[in-house]
Write a structure and sequence with these properties.
alpha/beta; Immunoglobulin-like; six-stranded mixed β-sheet; five-stranded antiparallel β-sheet
Amino acid sequence: MIDFIKSLYFGKRFFYAFFAIALIFLCSFWFGILYSIGWILLVLLVFISILDIISLFKHSSLKAHRELPEKFSNSDENQVILKLRNKYSFTVHAEIIDEIPVQFQKRDFLLSLVLPANSEKQTKYILKPLMRGEYTFGNLNIYISSPLKLAKRRYIFNKDQIVKVYPSFIQMKKLDFLALDQKISLQGIKRIRRIGHTMEFEQIKEYVPGDDVRTINWKASAKQNEFMVNQFQDEKAQPVYSVIDCGRLMKMPFEGLSLLDYAINSSLAISNVALKKKDRVGLLAFSKEIHAIQKAGSKLSQLNKIMEAMYNIDTGFYDSDYSLLYSRIRKNLPQRSLLLLYTNFEHMSALKRQLPYLKALSRKHLLVVIFFRNTEILKLTGLNPETIGENAEQTIAEQFIHDKNLMLKELLRHNIQSILTTPKELSVNTINKYLEIKSRGLI
């Protein structure tokens, strides 16, 4: 009985009809004939409502299911599918209220469907998460009403489903596809001209117009009586580490995502590209402590290990300990490696405090410091100031931009590779840098 009462609701039509009958009873105070009409209509309303309730509650004739993907991709659109099956012998109207995870802060979710008799229907909606971690879906509530729409019955399905939100593997696959298909320049990733021959020998092949004449193998050409050239391939199995700063400065949000999320998405994309290039990839995340470390590997499972290590990493409100980073890299990375350090510096003084550690790292490894342009500050520089306050804000913004450019020059002066990029272009620019380093044979 309690379950019946909890599942029973009345529709708007019922309350509109009840309100109209109440008005008739009110008017019967002046027009007596309306009193009898009011009672007739009230009895009719109760009778029809009972029939409507019986038709809805006679059998459990609705089945529904929420289909979730195995995992969500952070900062991308993810599809949730709802499948419904109507076993009633009449058309029903369904109102769907899905209790989506609290992280989305969406409390007005509502889908309306019309389900013909004895039919199945599928609908879907899109969710775009902006945080990594575990997301819990609550009840899938479906309110069914007959064509009369006087009463409703609530069905509950799929309570407490959990899905994990991982770094953007959709972006990773997109960049991987473009790179392998030689179309990556369409997204702003440039081709890098090969310089020198710091590559491994692969084979001798026939000369074709366009081949570098300096690679002609004269002995093979004399034997074959035609020009033959040496063909080289990129050196493989080189360790590439994504080193992610999880300190307080990486908490800054841009377009809904923190800098840490941008860095994690980029590190996943570059790891995938490096694996396709037959290099070994690894991960190190740090702040005042080491949050995650994954030794470089070249197996296909390496990408999944990196993804699992990164999906629940979060920033704290602490300054990052670069001395800890240096000691851990010195201890665990004996081989010369490419270190892609995702971090952020807002002032020149902050860079100079960490510069001794960066210089020490760059002596043994190829270090690339990746930090961010503040896009909100860039917007200020494009405005026309009308007041003294706006003028002061623009001056400060220009000083910040100038400091960022000084940081680039300071790193270059100490022979440290660097990338200064907007968060949105981070993955593209990082892959650019990696391809450039590979083509120049710097590692």
